[in-house]
């Protein structure tokens, strides 16, 4: 991997074959192209900003948010829970090491939102589906960070052996 620094970051095409294999083994899912990396950061920043706004609007009780959760019919407690999750997800989305896990959390929120739009409010879930796609892109491109984050859990103690 000594020649790695001489490699330009245009898809590793100018690197020797063995060096490319080593890089792909070490960094299987890292975005390597500079433009793609910048676009990923911009997408994370845009989605983080959007969810900071959406979560804040729910927590502050803006009339549109109150009306939406009244129409859903689950009570205003659901608005507060959703606001906290969206606000937290938006904050974590701008931290590259936590962006993948945050995107997974917000993907779950958007799947629930899609279901509510379709089956409760009976309208097309255009915005929720677009956010779901954006979070999917972020989660996919940050999957190595998410794997590393989840790998640092303390090991579970072994189960006690019981004889029947």
Which features does this protein show?
globular; 164 residues; mainly alpha; disordered N terminus
Distinct helical segment count = 7
User: Could you state the order of secondary-structure elements as H and E?
Assistant: HHHHHHH
Q: How many beta strands in the DSSP annotation?
A: 0
Rg is 21 Å
What is the residue-averaged pLDDT?
83
Termini Cα gap: 55 Å
User: Which outline best applies?
Assistant: globular
Low-confidence stretches: 1-13
Describe the structure.
The chain has one domain. It is mainly α and 164 residues long. The termini are far apart. It is built from seven helices and no strands. Helix 2 packs antiparallel against helix 4.
Summarize the structure.
This protein is an all-alpha fold and 164 residues long. The protein contains seven helices and no strands.
Spell out the blueprint of helices and strands:
Layout: H1 17-26, H2 34-60, H3 63-72, H4 76-93, H5 96-119, H6 126-141, H7 143-151
